[in-house]
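lol forgot to send this yesterday, sorry. struct tokens for the thing we talked abt
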């Protein structure tokens, strides 16, 4: 295989005995050319080195650039051996003449001078063709990936002497027969009125023609050829009451400078429709081969998706086996500044809706689970592609982590900081087309839903109504709030069975918090009680080496930051030979022995000091008891003396200031009595004051 450019986009080209396969890196679209279909191979010099031009028997042309000149012999031998084709060498005419002959071959318009081509135009890139008196003007689709795009080419067609044939009209008809020009010929097959569209925003009438879609809104109209539809997605909303129908477009539809790569329609599951196609039954059967019928009825989203699938001839991608914490097949998250839904698919991820993002597994380099920046109740899910593009989906609920991690693990995607382990290599084929999956998940889903409907039709309507109501619990957000703040967690719960399960979980959360906090307190206490005279722990071999070489590293790298210095030191230590490391290991061992010796001496000294401290504590306690006894005796004597001189006491109290009263006698008499009974020491100031006032 080889990295090459196919027409306008980069990709990978593989040549095998069965044929040629090219996979577009941007869109994931696969061109598969069977060996039996190849009619001609041309090797020529182009702007990007050398190119390969392949022509098939049915008139299609494929061009791939980016080859080296030395690869011609190898490719020529391969074509002879396996395809039985001569790889012809043809040079482009570079004379600069602008007068020549136009030849139409398959999908190509070739402008030749003599037998040499000057340039070729793929007619599928033509968006409009207009004619003048002796002129034909070709307009092209704009290439968004290129800085400069060719938008228009004019050809002068001289008049001829032949009667009845207009050369200008003949030229234009040849172009229009193969060009991607939208022409509203005939009536629409069907019309869907007032559909809610999220991208581009608004309500649109969608008219479906045999070759294109026509979106008619109040302000803008869009015409979308079926050939530009890349993929179709049908995604459930998290509330289980709405559905997203996503149409991926390449090239995108344009409105001024805005490009819409995705067309997103939002449907309610409750909306039903009866649809009649604007074709007779024979035409419907002949064209759609049983995929559609003239008269159809069902949910609106089913009808739109069914018609689109039949006309565009693309399979509809639906979410796979993933199921989130709440039972939904998508995850609520934020991308860039907007909140949306991330749906894990069988072969990729899709985010709706602003802006829509589709990431295939085969273009993912690795994924990463990161801690949330603002709160610990959420985390970020990061994806980096092989092209270096990064996508960060933030504010994902913590409860979704286990389910999403298991999904990523099952799909064998490389997770950052864990490395690509054995058996984790991607099992999918790099050249497999994500659209051409043998298993049609959408068809299986429709069959399952049909069975469920038949079962529900036999049951009572009341029972089915209860089931749908239970699946959506608007009160879940309130429960989360109460759980987060823990101020009144029980208030948010109700007597229902579903809520009782959440209440059972809450005590477990609180117990967990208590368990986490206790060891921290013990650590703080041990740090506070640490003896400053205790010997310091010995350094490791690496730290000894770092202290000795820190200044040297700083001088070698002036202006280096602390973090970069530690990184650089780690690299130097890792690259150091085993002999040099052994020298620092010996030093670390000597330091450890010295530490153990110092600790033995310290422990002996600390025991003697602790015994002295205990003896001094006992003495202090005895002295305090003796002092309390003396104080109680004095208090009793002062109370008796104050009772004999109560009139004097009342006089002294009447002369007390407001500040004195408020500070000392703010509490009631009962509280004073209780305090004095409980604590003898606390009653000392009051008794001394009373005795003093009595003596006065």
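and heres what i got for the seq, position by position
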């Amino acid at each position: 295989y080889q990295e090459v450019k196919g027409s306008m986009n980069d990709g990978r080209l593989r040549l095998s005995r069965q044929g040629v396969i090219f996979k577009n890196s941007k869109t994931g679209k696969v061109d598969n050319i069977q060996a039996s279909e190849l009619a001609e191979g041309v090797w020529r010099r182009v702007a990007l080195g050398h190119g390969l031009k392949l022509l098939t028997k049915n008139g299609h042309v494929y061009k791939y650039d980016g080859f080296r000149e030395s690869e011609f012999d190898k490719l020529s031998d391969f074509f002879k051996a396996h395809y039985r084709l001569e790889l012809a060498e043809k040079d482009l005419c570079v004379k600069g003449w602008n007068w020549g002959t136009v030849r139409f071959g398959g999908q190509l318009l070739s402008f030749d001078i003599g037998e040499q081509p000057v340039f070729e135009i793929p007619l599928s890139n033509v968006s409009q063709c207009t004619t003048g008196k002796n002129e034909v003007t070709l307009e092209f689709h704009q290439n968004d990936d290129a800085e400069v795009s060719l938008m228009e080419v004019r050809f002068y067609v001289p008049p001829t002497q032949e009667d009845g044939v207009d050369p200008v009209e003949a030229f234009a008809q040849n172009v229009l027969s193969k060009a991607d020009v939208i022409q509203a010929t005939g009536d629409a097959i069907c019309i869907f009125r007032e559909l809610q569209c999220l991208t581009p925003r608004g309500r649109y009438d969608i008219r479906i023609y045999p070759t294109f879609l026509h979106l008619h809104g109040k302000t803008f109209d869009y015409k979308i050829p079926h050939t530009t539809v890349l993929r179709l997605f049908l995604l459930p909303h998290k509330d289980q009451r709405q559905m997203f129908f996503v149409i991926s477009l390449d090239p995108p539809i344009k409105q001024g400078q805005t490009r819409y790569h995705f067309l997103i329609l939002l449907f309610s599951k409750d909306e039903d429709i009866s649809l009649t196609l604007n074709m007779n039954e024979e035409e419907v059967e002949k064209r759609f081969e049983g995929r559609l019928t003239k008269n159809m009825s069902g949910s609106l989203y089913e009808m739109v998706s069914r018609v689109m699938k039949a006309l565009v001839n693309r399979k509809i991608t639906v979410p796979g086996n993933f199921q989130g914490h709440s039972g939904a097949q998508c995850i609520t998250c934020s991308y860039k500044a907007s909140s949306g839904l991330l749906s894990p698919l069988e072969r990729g991820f899709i985010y709706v809706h602003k802006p829509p993002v589709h990431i295939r597994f085969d273009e993912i380099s690795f994924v990463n689970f990161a801690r949330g920046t603002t709160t610990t109740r959420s985390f970020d899910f990061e994806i980096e592609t092989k092209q270096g593009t990064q996508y960060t989906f933030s504010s994902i609920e913590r409860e979704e982590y286990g389910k999403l991690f298991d999904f990523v693990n099952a799909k064998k995607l490389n997770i950052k900081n864990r490395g690509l382990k054995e058996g984790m290599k991607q099992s999918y084929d790099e050249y497999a087309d994500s659209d051409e999956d043998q298993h049609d998940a959408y068809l299986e889903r429709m069959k399952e839903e049909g069975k469920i409907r038949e079962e529900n039709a036999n049951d009572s309507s009341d029972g089915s109504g209860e089931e749908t109501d239970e699946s959506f619990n608007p009160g879940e957000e309130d429960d989360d709030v109460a759980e987060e703040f823990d101020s009144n967690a029980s208030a948010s719960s109700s007597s229902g069975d579903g809520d009782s399960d959440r209440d059972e979980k809450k005590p477990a959360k609180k117990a967990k918090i208590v368990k986490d906090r206790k060891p921290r307190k013990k650590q703080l206490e041990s740090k506070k009680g640490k003896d400053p005279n205790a010997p310091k722990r010995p350094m490791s071999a690496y730290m000894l080496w770092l202290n000795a070489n820190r200044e040297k590293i700083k001088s070698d790298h002036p202006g280096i930051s602390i973090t970069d210095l530690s990184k650089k030191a780690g690299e130097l230590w890792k690259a150091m030979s085993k002999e040099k490391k052994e020298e620092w290991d010996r030093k670390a061992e000597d330091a450890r022995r010295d530490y153990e010796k110092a600790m033995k001496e310290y422990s002996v000294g600390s025991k003697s000091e602790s015994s002295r401290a205990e003896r001094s504590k006992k003495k202090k306690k005895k002295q305090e008891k003796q002092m309390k006894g003396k104080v109680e005796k004095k208090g009793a004597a002062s109370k008796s003396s104050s009772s004999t001189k109560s009139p004097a006491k009342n006089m002294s109290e009447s002369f007390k200031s407001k500040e004195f009263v408020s500070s000392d006698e703010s509490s009631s008499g009962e509280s004073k009595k209780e305090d004095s009974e409980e604590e003898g020491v606390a009653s000392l100031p009051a008794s001394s004051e009373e005795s003093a006032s009595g003596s006065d």
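DSSP finds 16 helices and 31 strands in the chain. anyway ping me if u want another try
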